[in-house]
Amino acid sequence: MTRDRPALRIDPRIDVRVRGTLFGALADVPELDLTTLNLSAGGALCESSRPVPLGRPATLRLELTDDRGAPHPVVIGVLVLRTEGPSPYRVALHFVDVPPRVLDLIRRFVFRT
What is the dihedral of CA 109, 36, 8, 66, to 10 degrees? Predict the structure, then answer.
C-alpha cells in the first residue's frame, strides 16, 4: 500500500530587504510602508511599524529590480497570515492570484539575489 503524498514544492526563500507598501490592510491607514526580511514566490516576511490584522486581504507593492538593476515594481494580492511583535512587527504575507508575469519577475529576483 502506498501513501498519497502531495508533490514536493520547491519555494526558495532568500533573506533580502526590499521596500514595499501595503494597501488596504488597516482601516485608518491607506498605505503602510514595509520592508521585507525574506521573500519567496509564495510570500514574504516583512517588518512593519504597525501590527496588521490577520486574514485580511490587501495589496502589496514591492520595488524589485531586474538583472541590470532597473526598477520593476510589482503589485500582488496578499493575505496576512501572521503578525508578531512588539514594534517593529513581523508580518507574514501569503501571495494570492499572482499573474504569471509577476510570478516570473519574483522568481528571477529570488534566484538572482
Answer: -10
- Please state the separation of Cα 93 from the chain's center in Å: 5
Name the nearest CA neighbour of 103 among 11, 7, 9: 11
C-alpha cell at 99: 499573474
Residue written as cell 501572521?
Answer: 82
**Nearest to residue 50, comparing CAs of 88, 103, 11, 94?**
88
pLDDT band at 1 (very low <50, low <70, confident <90, very high): very low
Q: Which three cell numbers stand for residue 76?
A: 500582488
- Answering whether pTM is above 0.70, one says yes
Q: State which amino acid sits at residue 57.
A: P
- Asked if 26 and 50 touch (Cβ cutoff 8 Å), the reply is yes
